[in-house]
Each structure stands twice: as C-alpha cells, then as structure tokens.
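Students often ask why we bother encoding 3D structure as a string. The short answer is that it lets us treat folding as translation between two languages. Here is a chain of 429 residues written in the first language.
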Amino acid sequence: MSTTPSSTPRRNAVPAGIVSTDVAERVAALVASYPRDRSQRIAARSSPFWSGLTETGTELWLDTGDIDAAGQLWCDEFSALTTNNTLLNKEVQKGTYDAFISETARQLTDLDERQRVIEVAFVLNAVHALRLVDRFDSRVSVELHTAMADDVESAVFYGKRYFHLCPEHFIVKVPLTASGLIATRELRAAGVPVNFTLGFSARHNYLATAFARPSYVNVFLGRLGAYIADNKLGDGKLVGERTALASQAEIERAGANHDEPTLQIAASLRDAGQVRDLAGIDVFTMPTAVAAAAEKELDGRFDDRRETRYSTRFSDAFTEKAIRADSLWEISDEVEALVESLDESVPATAEGLVERAHASGCGDLFPNLSDADRERIRVDGKIPKHSAWSDRIADGGLAIDTLLNLAGLASFAQDQAALDDRIRRLTAG
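And here it is in the second language, the structure alphabet:
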C-alpha cells in the first residue's frame, strides 16, 4: 500500500485553484452587496467579572458564529470572535442564507461547479463574518476552505482576498499543515494577520512561530485532555493546560527577535476551571457555554498562572513514556535542528519542508500515511482511538499532537463538505 506525506494534497482533494481577477472582483462586489446593519450593535458595557481576567494580561475572544448566543455574553472586555468550518456550517444549515446562496450562485454560472461552490462558500464565510463585525465591532477570524489545507497557492490567494474585504477586522485562519506553514509565511510577509489553527503542542507552535511568524497560534487543550482520558491513558486533567503554558513560553522564545509577537490562544476549552487555571495566557477563545459557566461558577478573582507548571497523571510511568507525552510540552533537539535548518535555507515547497523535517529526525510532525490511515482517522472523529496508533507513536513514527491535528482537519473537512452539499442542492439546475 503506497503512502504519501501528510503535507501533500490528499488523493481525494483537488486543489482549489485560482480564479481570474475578474471573478475575484465580482465576488468582492457580491460580498459588498450584502446589506450591512450596524443598528443592532451591542451597546458598550463593562463587566467587573471579565475585567478581573483581562487585568492578568489575557485577551478575551468568543468561539462562536452564533450572533444571538454571543450577544448574551458580549461586553467591553471581549475583543474578537473566532469562526470555523464547523461553526459556519451550523449557521448555514439553519437556512438563513439560502436565498443569498442561490442568488450568489446565479452570478457565477461561468464557473465550473467545484469552483462555484468554493466561491459561494468564500462569500458565505465573509458575509457571516461581516455580520459579526457589524454587531460586535470586533475582529473576526475567517477560515479558509479545507480544500486549501494542502494547497499553498490557493491558501495565499484566498487569504489575501479575505483580508482585503475587511482589513481592519478580519484575521485569516490557516490550518497547521506543511502547506499551511509555507502559506502563512507568505501571508505574513504581505501583512495579512494569521490565526494559525489546529496546533496541539509546544513544538507545533515553536516551529510555526520560528518559521512562519503567525499573529496567533493555538493549543486545542480540551481535545488533548480528552485523548488521554478517553483512551484510558491517564485522567487527562491539566494535560492541555500544561501544554498551552509551555507553548506560550516557547513561542516567546522563538519570536524574541521578531518585529511582531506571535500570541498564544487557548482553544477548545471544556469547562470554567480551565479559564481559572490559564489566567494570564495571551488569548482565550471560549465557547459561549464555557464563558457562561465561568460567570456562574467562578468568583472573578484571577491570578496570573503563566509561571505555573502543572503536573499531569498518566496510568503509569510506562504509559507516559510509551505515548511520548513529553513531545507535547518539550522542544526536542531534533525540532531545534529543524528550526535551525529552516532558518538557514527556506524550502520553496511544502514537500521540501516535509523532507527537511524527516531529515532532521522529526518526521512524526509530517508522517507518511496511507489512504487507509486517513480513512481511519476520519472515521474515529476528533478523538482518535489510541490503540490503532500506539505502536507507531511508541516507535516515533507518529505523535499525539500530529494525530489530533490530522483528526481535527478531517473533522473540519466533513463539516465543510456538508456546507458545500447544501450549496450544491440550492444551486442545482
């Protein structure tokens, strides 16, 4: 069975491609034609509860595309919202945009079906983000179509287009893949702010900061804890928190000489306790349920936890070593060597970056995977079954952070496919 590096285009994914300047301008006009309504903008109000957290140095975002849910929590201490393929799909499936989808598609009949779907999805993401901007006067992260995860040219092209629609408010989300690293480096060189998403370890974000210099990196800490607990490798408690704080320290080191800092986002929060335990981290992006729980369960007195070193519990010492848990919060000599190599000579392609990673001894960041491997990851969902990968993880051919990254991207791709299918149904014929 043949295998391909995870950075190369998947066999069932056709690169998104580049539309003409004329089409891009028409699409920008379609976005601009959507009615803007600032009359319902949330009135200014301060929250003593949340101001206690911002005083520790943390910036507060809400992780939702639901305008009504965000409106119930929004206050002056919040500064941005994050959306993604999953959150946008939830809003689109409500039917709110059906008429707009049909009308937008009618303006793009000169495109083939695949490109038309991608352009309509682009418009939907932009329009929904602009509605969030109008309601909350905030920055909003907008995410690339998942077809671009392994397509540098398209990721750069569409990332610039998003940014130019609303440069004051839009942050472009790019997923952590080898192609994403190359694309982010190019987007940042062009002045586009990037939220580099689907990070799961300090080494993920150390590499991203040193090489691509994104505006933000993430640790999806809830999924890290769930992986350990669901697979009965330990209790899962504080695994994500320990990783997120280690990541913040490492990106500060990696970006010490950069003109602009890379900031650490704590993402995939599951409960109010994590808000307390990570006070002081650069950024929280909180699901509305977690933010509401924090207001209810916490007293509003927060201590800066950035210097805290949390202990984590695994089933036993053998398990901790076998799963190579330290790869979540430590930077190995091999990763240092990779970063040094990339600093000396920048690879021109994602394939070149993957080859460099393997040559540096950290090929588990970009493992060779078969079609069957990818299908198993897709079927398992966001939290993979460890038993299927335990031998490869123990041998160093794969790692927990990489496995969760691949699972997260596969999950986003499924939600993107559901959104695309709705577009096709509404524009058939």
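Translate back mentally: The two ends are 40 Å apart (CA to CA). Keep this in mind for the problem set.
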